[in-house]
Amino acid sequence: MHTRLARAEVPVEATWDLSDLYADEAAWAAECEAVDEAQRALGAYQGKLADAASGAATLLACLNALEAAQVRLMRVDAYAHLRNAQDGTNPQHQAAVARVAALQARFDAATSFVDSEILAMPDGLLQTFIANEPRLGDFQ
Predict the structure, then answer these.
(1) Which of 33, 54, 65, 69 is a Cys-bridge partner for 38, taking CB atoms 3.0 to 4.6 Å apart?
(2) pTM to 2 decimals?
């Protein structure tokens, strides 16, 4: 029977290179903080998505900012989960997965207004916005 190697015993060339995502854990942690700040900044759009005066431009800016923040969130999530998959017994890796789960929960709660405000728009308003701002079609 073969003995399973501890993570520290596995040769580096036989492991995943996660430096394409983040150079190190400090860079990942800094990005977690930046994603948290980005989700808080999205709150500036709350209550403004159906504003007929600035609506199309505001909606487009909000959706672009939301999408950019979601991409960043996916990267921090992937890094944490891949590190945990390397060694699920490592408490630091487990803590990173928990940190990302909490970040995801805060992100989802803070941005839930986007779908709600779009769904609550008066009939025809969203179509008018899309007609006035064709780049909104990317989000259709």
Answers:
(1) 69
(2) 0.88
